Amino acid sequence: MAADHLSEVFDLVEVRSVLSGGMSVRGPWESSGVVETRLKFFAMVSGRARLTTDGVDGPVDLEPGDVAVLNNRSWLRVEGGTGDGPRRVVVPDADFAVTRLDGPEDVMIGGRVELNPIGEELLLQALPPLGHVRAAARSGVNLRGSIHRLFDEVAANRVGSAFAIRQHCQLLLLEVLRAHVDQTELPPGWLQVLTDERVRPALGLMHADPAKSWGLEELARAAAMSRTTFAERFRAAAGVPPLAYLNRWRMLLAQRALRDRDVRVGSLAVELGYASESAFSTAFKREVGESPLRYRNRARDTSAAPRRDGVRSPTARRHGGA
């Protein structure tokens, strides 16, 4: 099996998606609110809807199986339904009581994506302000199935459903990213370089042994390219040269170790290939902006802080939902 660098980074940044609400509506409707979480997703289970948010050119039309991802947006408006009469104002969660999909309802579920500070830096940089992943595209074949499996758990409320919902949310997010990679021209960054088959062998070397002092010649040979071609290809995909990527990868590993382990800074320096604790601390502060010990204290304090639900109505009544 080929090295799965995307899964490796998923573990590193602790990407976790959490279902936070849903709505099931018949007839004309609309819903709006203030977005309070940095990364939010909406999945259209059945029916159709139009989503508008700040900072983008126009609305997105969602069809069954489609997913919209909001990246660092401040507000949203969703509307749908057909027929005569005034539009009903929908409050997510309060308007979610469907148990099966056998009518003309518009059914939508929404959630937030929880990330540690490393994940926020990496994933938010890789995604557009409003991402639209289409289930109708060839790369979205598995997307609709993931959405329906998640919906079935939400609607059935069986024993163990809370655990199952968490797992299905995680898999849904993975399918969204897979489809996004196939359907979108990615900007230079970690998501593009991790999915570049040409540089995969060189990435494998750096990820497997980050402490080694890798040279450009050795990495280019692993990728079956000349030094110049490899350097240009890698920089175009990652946005930084190969050795700068290696240094950043070391810093990501260091941040996880400082956050999750009680390792001494000196031992961590040796583990990551630095000649001394001071050399490691200097590199860490240059990359992260603070010393290793200060980062450890702040990261652990942040992880203990409560999280917000993600969306609230303009009147400040929190409903956390789609």
TrEMBL record:
Recorded superkingdom: Bacteria
Biased composition (Basic and acidic residues): 298-311
Pfam families in alphabetical order: Cupin_6, HTH_18
Disordered: annotated segments: 295-322
Span of domain HTH araC/xylS-type: 200-298
Entry keywords, A to Z: DNA-binding, Transcription, Transcription regulation
PROSITE patterns the record matches: HTH_ARAC_FAMILY_1, HTH_ARAC_FAMILY_2
InterPro entries (UniProt xref): AraC_lig (IPR032783), AraC_XylS_family_regulators (IPR050204), Homeodomain-like_sf (IPR009057), HTH_AraC (IPR018060), HTH_AraC-typ_CS (IPR018062), Tscrpt_reg_AraC-type_HTH (IPR020449)
Alphabetical list of SMART domains matching this protein: HTH_ARAC
Gene3D superfamilies, per database record: Homeodomain-like
GO molecular function: DNA-binding transcription factor activity; sequence-specific DNA binding
This protein's name: AraC family transcriptional regulator
Organism of derivation: Umezawaea endophytica
